[in-house]
Automatic annotation (TrEMBL):
GO biological process, one term: dUTP catabolic process
InterPro entries, per database record: dUTPase, dUTPase-like, dUTPase-like_sf, dUTPase_trimeric
Family the entry assigns: Belongs to the dUTPase family.
Keywords from the named record: Hydrolase, Nucleotide metabolism
Annotated protein name in UniProt: dUTP diphosphatase
Natural source organism: Gemmobacter megaterium
EC number(s) per entry: 3.6.1.23
Molecular functions (GO terms): dUTP diphosphatase activity; magnesium ion binding
Length: 151
């Protein structure tokens, strides 16, 4: 995979890298020029990551997720819950940041160079679809959903 560094500050802050031998995702940095205040429950804002990717392979994609600590401790989550980066997209990776905290709480302040999200790579399966009037195989469950298994 090729990475294009769009913000030279990343050379100092750090390029996306796995922080431990078992890490599943790489951190993304907030490439902003000044602290960014996000008030609770206001619309999500797009934060530049300073990088673009060229996958070179359409059999996988990337997902942008909140960092566990930032989401749990601070309420900083993704405005779109999960950001999907298609393998044919080569523009800058943008992070949709949202303050999920309730009204009356303090804004979340994101500092320039702060690690605010993480990106994981996942395989993509693209089946061919065949239109049918009835399925050739039935399951014991059938079409039941939304609590149909007793949960």
């Amino acid at each position: 995979m090729q990475i294009k560094v769009l913000d030279p500050r990343l050379q100092h802050w750090g390029l996306p890298a796995y922080q431990t031998a078992g890490a599943a995702a790489v951190d993304l940095f907030a490439c902003i020029d000044a602290p960014l205040r996000i008030a609770p429950q206001t619309p999500a804002v797009l934060v530049r990551s300073g990088i673009a990717l060229s996958f070179g392979d359409f059999s996988f994609a990337a997902l942008v997720l909140p960092r566990s600590g930032a989401g749990h401790k601070r309420g900083l989550v993704m405005g779109n819950t999960v950001g999907l980066i298609d393998p044919d997209y080569t523009g800058e990776i943008l992070i949709s940041a949202w303050n999920r905290n309730g009204p009356g709480t303090d804004p979340i302040v994101i500092e320039p160079g702060e690690r605010i999200a993480q990106m994981i790579f996942v395989p993509v399966v693209r089946p061919d679809f065949t239109v049918v009037t009835e399925f050739s195989e039935q399951t014991a469950r059938g079409a039941g959903g939304f609590g149909s298994t007793g949960g």
